Amino acid sequence: MATLRQSYIAGVGHYVPSRVVKNAELEPLLNTSDAWIQERTGIQERRWFEEGKDTTANMGANAARKALEMAGVAANDVQLIVFATLSPDYFFPGSGVLLQRELGINNNAPALDVRNQCSGFIYALSVADQFVRTGMYDTVLVVGSEIHSSGLDKSPNGRGVSVIFGDGAGAVVLRPSTEEGQGILSTHLHSQGEHAEELIVKEPSSNREERLQYILDNPQDLFPIMNGQNVFKHAVVRFPQVIKEALDQNGFQPTDIDMLIPHQANLRITQYVQQKMGLSDDKVFSNIQRYGNTTAASVPIALSEAVQEGKIKRGDLVCLAAFGSGFTWASALIKW
Fold first, then answer.
1. Active-site hit among 62, 188, 293, 319
2. pTM of the complete model beyond 0.90
3. Among 182, 203, 220, 324, which lies 20 to 30 A Cα-Cα from 258?
4. Domain 7-176, second-level architecture
5. SS3 content of the chain, % helix, strand, coil (to 5)
């Protein structure tokens, strides 16, 4: 029986829109305050897309170009695209093929779309890792890209959700590892569908015979709904569990982690997880203060920034972890 290969992250990149939206800009719209937002989420500002300039696909392409450049890989050498988003450009087709077109990839490489919201990037990374491990593909592009700002309730009714989310994209390139023990050591994926409606955008739903008329009559159902307390309660349990699962499988302790990159959901969740795992400030990366929650884009944006800032170096043990709508949660343990 052939030994499975490991994959490693050969390149990372990210893109965020140029429009910066500070908390002060949201105060009159949402009847809130900078202090209220920072106290509950840790967010100081976020990026919102510019119509006519930014799309989910082209933001992903901008991030992908940087990742491909770092990896020393031409776009046409990509053999598989795995695109994670909850905010696709179209109802169909998926954004993966649009990214393929944006990058000028004309080799008929397959494009796969993943809809796992906040856990989407790690789910996509796991899928890509399996394709490399089995030898089916050698070069896989994994992208997380989101435009939330166009789908938020920018009124006081939406305050609890609309202060949280931002727009952006991140990408990585996976290649086969030539060194044993280097690269993605393992990935761990979970879900618990009984909580699906705790964080949800219900419409447009295919389950309505007159779905257009329903939306016209009930436009509020186009906005996200979140039971914040319940999401928080589950997140602070599942994050440490899935991190420990990855460490246990590979024979490591929390003290062995050199950098934890959690999904940027809420700074209070990150701080709780950091305390629970006994990690010092220099071993946890947070950028939610500047970007808010960018869902499937948050982990790759944070990973890209951490690499860019020199906070991750060769040989480091890096853990990625996420929790979100579904509920879904996931982790990946990487020897950089």
1. 293
2. yes
3. 324
4. 3-Layer(aba) Sandwich (3.40)
5. 45, 25, 35
